[in-house]
Amino acid sequence: MASYSSEVKNELTRVTGDDFCCQAAELAALFRMGGAMSIGGQMQLGINFVTENAALARKVLNLIKGKFELKTEVMVSRSRRLKKNNRYMIKVVPAPEVVDLLAALGIMRADGWNDGDDTAICEEECCKRAYLRGAFLGGGSVNRPEGEYHLEMVTENRLFATTIVTMMEGFGFPVGQTERKKDCMIYLKDGDAIMRFLRLIGVEEAMQSFEQVRLVKSVRNKVNRLVNCETANLNKTVMAASRQVAHIKRIDQYIGLENIAPNLREAARLRLAHPEAPLQELVDLMEGRVSKSGMNHRLRKLEKLAEELPGGDIN
Questions:
Q1: Can you give the pLDDT at residue 43?
Q2: Which among 251, 259, 242 has a CA at the least distance from the CA of 301?
Q3: DSSP string, the chain
Q4: pLDDT digit string, tens, across residues 169-221
Q5: Exposure of 29 by Cβ count < 10 A (0-12 exposed, 13-18 middle, 19+ buried)?
Q6: Residues 6 or more apart from 312 whose CB is under 8 A from it?
Q7: Percent of the chain, pLDDT > 70?
Q8: Among 205, 155, 200, 207, which residue's Cα sits nearest to residue 177?
Q9: What would the pLDDT profile of 66-94 be if each residue is shown by its tens digit?
Q10: What does each C-alpha distance from 7 to 57, 96, 175 come to in angstroms?
Q11: Is-contact 187 150, C-beta < 8 A?
Q12: How far is residue 35's CA from residue 271's CA, in Å, rounded to a whole number?
């Protein structure tokens, strides 16, 4: 079964901005995540982009081919990782025109090489959404909603990571950042925030299952809290009743129930007859002759009386 991350990414590969500025922003983030420069003859630049997602490889190829007349090659190999998935390399053959592509993506500028600050090509909100989509497609993952809420994007480029964090903060996300060996990890751990982020970058179909599972988890957690609360209250009632019975038996042993005040004697015998009944049930058995606070007062007086007898407090 495909991972939830794969389901999300496969859906996102079908989402593309209408304007070239958005396409450029998405492609720039994709190259930041999975691209590498190559140098050919006459020191001409080329680009290699590697992914294990066939749909993403097609999308990158289409984005490149959409605006630029560049020679490209597609190479498929077997990954050396444990799952041995196919590995796709989109190769932009070194040529003078590659510089035009890099300039359009903001990776090369008039003042030199841009290491990861892409704010200049992401001034519009639509471009920022596309950029974050590219970053997630190239180096992101998200847990299935049935488990712990966790979405992350991982990159070795610290300046690029800072750009992503700044952009996400601009949209109001409670984003975190940490280092994992030589990588920077940008993450979200809040269910609401993950839902908002996925919706922001264009996820719709996979969002429905996420939201449904999240609602089920919310209801289940609420039921569990209510059950736990009810159980705690029941345990408290049983412990209090058990303590009251022990106190009443001590009074009967040392004084005799017939020798205490009639109202206390009535409450004591009622408790002995119903040792596990909650307070309200004892009140109901009195048929309106005493209130809940009145019954509680009588039981507390019985306990106080018992504590003054030999043996002291009973807990």
A1: 85
A2: 251
A3: ---HHHHHHHHHTT---SSHHHHHHHHHHHHHHHEEEEE-GGG-EEEEEEES-HHHHHHHHHHHHHH----EEEEEEE-SSTT--EEEEEEE---TTHHHHHHHTTSEETTEE--S--GGG--SHHHHHHHHHHHHHHHEEE--TTS---EEEEES-HHHHHHHHHHHHHTT---EEEEETTEEEEEE--HHHHHHHHHHHT--HHHHHHHHHHHHHHHHHHHHHHHHHHHHHHHHHHHHHHHHHHHHHHHHHHT-GGGS-HHHHHHHHHHHHSTT--HHHHHHHTTTSS-HHHHHHHHHHHHHHHHTSTT----
A4: 999 999 999 998 889 999 999 888 998 999 999 988 776 666 666 666 666 66
A5: buried
A6: none
A7: 91
A8: 155
A9: 778 888 888 888 766 656 678 889 999 99
A10: 15, 37, 23
A11: yes
A12: 78
Q: Which domains does the chain have, with CATH numbers?
A: 4-203 (3.10.28.10), 224-307 (no CATH)
- Counting every residue, how long is the chain? 315
Q: What is the pLDDT of residue 268?
A: 86
Q: Mention every residue, 6+ apart, whose C-beta is less than 8 A from residue 17.
A: 23, 25, 26, 126, 127, 130
* Residue 90 CA: distances (Å) to CA of 47, 77, 116, 278: 8, 12, 21, 73
Q: Among 288, 315, 260, which residue's Cα sits nearest to residue 268?
A: 260
